[in-house]
Records
---
Amino acid sequence: MGSNAAKLRVAWFLLAATVSAPAAADLVFTAPPRESAAKAKEVYQPIADFLSKISGQKVVFRYTDNWLSYQSDMRKGLFDIVFDGPAFIGWRMAKLDHTPLVKLPGNLAFVVVVKKDNTAVKELKDLAGRKLCGFAPPNLATLTVLVEFTNPARQPLLVETKGFQAAYKAVVDGKCDAGILQTKLWQDFDKEKSATKPVFNSKPVPNQAFSAGGPRVSPELRAKFAEALMTEDGKAATKLLRDEFKGQDFVPAKKEEYEGLGALMRDVWGFEL
């Protein structure tokens, strides 16, 4: 009987290994939950197929429909290849041995503005206890501002708005004391700077990028991905993604550009460094 039990345990072990092996062999590629599942598949599946061809290993695109799951799965190290923003990339570099591969060109900078006639808010610290309109964290624009408030007892009251234009309008209409905007967009919204004025300008950070890493993506494969994504075939695979960002070609991403940016995630639960 003992012999039969042992054989049964071995059979179950072999069955489990057979079932789990294909999934474990797949590399997982993902991106933030910013669009519908159908739209995400349209944009990212060609990239997953291209990376599969380059690596000779199956790369699957995994869609996540909410930020909590996206962040939770990231902390567990379930993603091998990711396209997202510099704060997440910096955190994965520090915690999950990721390497930035290629990025969208240029930098991202943000500004906090108040109404032109606002005399109560002269600098960022004056917003403690006041209404600040912006995207909900972990949006990069919001993180670059909130990280400046180091005293937990002196924080602004974040009012979630859907879009930079909505934040700007809320400031002009007096619904918020200040708003967080992308610098270039603010310059478009208030060309004459007659309605608003800045009280804070963030330091520029590098643009969104692909990163890859963890124990299943070797340094050699990371370099291979980075080179391939800038070829003509790579451009074809990323066309729909690049179209979302004005069709800009990817450029090489350097580790030193993203190092330390994980600190922007300081107040996002589970992402303390």
---
Amino acid sequence: MDEILLTHPINPEELLWFLSRGFDDPIYSVRENSIFRAFLFADKKFLVKITPGTRSVKIEWLCGERTEENAAFVKSFISEWFDLEEDITSFYELLKADDRLSYMAEEFYGLKLVGMPDLFEALAWAIIGQQINLTFAYKIKRRLIEKYGDYINHDSSRYYIFPSPGTIAAADIEDLRKMQLSGSKTAYLKNIALAFIEGKIDKTILRSLPDSVSRRNLLTAQKGIGVWTANYVLMKSLRDQTAVPFGDAGLINALLNHGIIANKTELQDMHQLFERFKGWEAYLVFYLWRSLAPKPDNPLISIESN
């Protein structure tokens, strides 16, 4: 059993609810107050059970060899996935200073920004989800992963690993179209996969750039990546706080619900709000998205502090 000890507490109930909020993500499964996820590292596959608590995250190895290198990789991935090292105290102070948003500091206390550490998965997911609803997007994601992803079988269940850029680049166009991917999305996915293979895009390259504008420009230079997609991916995969997906329908609805804007074309008040949250813009987006969903009420999720 491995364990990540937390300097800053998290909210495991909110985390588990977010990961199991009614959508069918084939990359992981949530049950028994835990998250089950398969990984591929150094050409080795393994499956772990991740159990979050308020003060630590426990990791149990279910399948595949545990090595010090594998364990370090998994700990790093989980820490990045759930933003475990971030101290969000100052974000809460900003929330409390706004009467319209102050309730979030209490209701969502300890909820960290759940990201997507795998940059290729984040880009592929953003492309799949363009201009369709989430339920349909998850169906397509499952079809893609079941067709092209590697997997581990354990206790009568199959745990998938997201396909590599090389696998998607080599995928048959007609097979992709049969998954109800449009012709343009099929071309975009293969184009992005080739960009990874050719070394035009990866997290090291993006992190080496001097600012958000440069990172966004590198991404939007690739066909299929617009400004919204670039901002979403920078927010979720690189945790770029300034990468706000303005124009996002969910974000606009949340701003309308809180009386921050009066109509969908009223941009000045929106930008003024984000100006007051400098350094925490992505977190503000995440919490506004969270506000659109009902409060968790799942009797199957009952967390003890650890």
---
Amino acid sequence: MKIALVQMEIKEKNCAGNTAHGLQLLEEAAQQSDLVILPEIWTTGYSLGHLREEAVTLDSPLMRRICDIAGKYQCSLLPGSLPVFKDGAVYNMLPAINKKGEIVNAYGKAHLFGMFEEEKFFAPGASFDVFDLDGVCCGSTICYDLRFPEFYRYLALQGAQLIVCPAEWPSRRGDGFDLLSRARAFENHVFVAAVNCVGTFKGNPFYGHSRIIDPLNGIIAEGGETEEVIYAEIDLTRVEKVRKNLNALQDTRFIIRKPEQ
């Protein structure tokens, strides 16, 4: 399976420019890949002052364009997260689109980043389940979710072969991105595709270093700190092969403690 990670530069207060550029990179990558993944909120970036005006719906012209790209090139898409307006609220949402151009899943970011007061802008998602994307059992997470190992374990226990994590992760915490992305893959015997952006926000650079990690903690491919598309081949049968040997998942115990009265 050939995967493309679109590590694009996201510019502040430039929704129209980011959208046009992201679509161009997405279409170029889709022509030579089985799956393409973009970073977190790549249309707006963290310029959230006009979020409600710039949010889209799942049947918006932008989403129809993305679905058309998937169908045209017969390529599965996890086209990063977008601010999506649904049921009167805005979600930081990652849609999944199959090779027919159909939306088969839409994950709203579950863990909102308190340091940036994301709860003032987004509603938290409430779906934590895996989904089938053209025969691949996938799990979706977004950026800050990477810090919650129980979420990744839950997805792995449901049978996830590939867990994706679009992000806007800053350089000043790059060591955390390195450590946590590899840990989530290694402890769950699963492929992790962590797709970061580059550029700056309020003068602070993003880390880049998008990567695909295999179930034994090996980095298959990794980007640098500039815009690029990272291509890699993965063999999904490695998940089953690894789990036949050292398999922490089958040894997992569920301990529920009642709160003290």
---
Amino acid sequence: MKKLYDMLSVARPGKSVSVKKWTEKYIDSMSKYGHFYIDKIGNRYITVGKDPKIAFTAHTDTVHFQEGILKLVENKETSTLRAVDSVLGADDGVGCFLLSEMIQNGVVGLYVFFVEEETGGVGSSYSVEKHFQIYKGIDCMISLDRRGTTNVITHQGGSRTCSDEFASNLSLALNSFGLEYSPDDTGIFTDSANFVGIIRECTNLSVGYFRAHSTEEYVNLIHIQKLRDTLLKIDWNKFSISNKKGQGVKSQEESVVEC
């Protein structure tokens, strides 16, 4: 887990020098594991294996206003990690860590590291507009950018982005390795929401951080380790296609909470 600690120790505002250097160190260094591409605004794409059907995504920026090295403190009794007097940036440093582990272990997929999610999904919006051809053959997109430890998101901002069938099957797959996931319709926004209408199933997965965007943010280290191990074990081809379309219509009665 040392790599996770190192990745979380850097504050990474969008367009900053720190996020550029961090991305070069932790993301670009994985180019040897697959076909690697950087677009004009800095999104990174790594294709592992032949003809992947699933896109896994995370974003490289954090909500910090200033760059710098964070002082991290681990509570061994609760197996949690937080930053001293600062936002931790586990949103979405944890997602980037998990994707990097999957890439290094040869899990077949299209891996996309988006820029500037925290300022309105800038990177993913650009990718949809300029590079939609990259997603040809992709049946589902799983963003690893959700708070908590139990959610497979079916709705973002009140609109359906993922079918209940797909979310239930993915939950079952995760739970078969000892986790406790279930479909959840209270998502707000992450990059996968921009791909509704382009990709059939677009979801967001809880990765073990809490109280994001605040100085009280922390991560559950035990969950992250379990999720990491599970992501390497699942046969992802079984969950790439659903018989139902993921996109639905907005319900005025559906509530939203912090993503």
